[in-house]
Amino acid sequence: MSVVRGGRGWFVPWGWVYRPVSWPGVGLVALAAVFCAQVFLAVDRHSHSVSDTLYGVFPYVVPCLILLNWIASKTSAGPIP
Length: 81
Prior knowledge:
Blueprint: E1 11-14, E2 17-20, H1 23-45, H2 50-74
Antiparallel strand pairs: 1-2
Helix pairs in contact: 1-2
């Protein structure tokens, strides 16, 4: 059951993920992308290998994307008719 009642939601289901269809949804995706890019740059600056970067980025990027998916599922208005 979505939080959005009646009107148009922030996201719509698109395969296994959600696609933003309103400005708050686009802003949330942009915020998550900026956060993930910042984490990548900060971790990669001090990494010695690709595996160092992946291990350093994982604890931040994965919860961010899980939270984004959860918010999208709660603010989804359902499939477009």
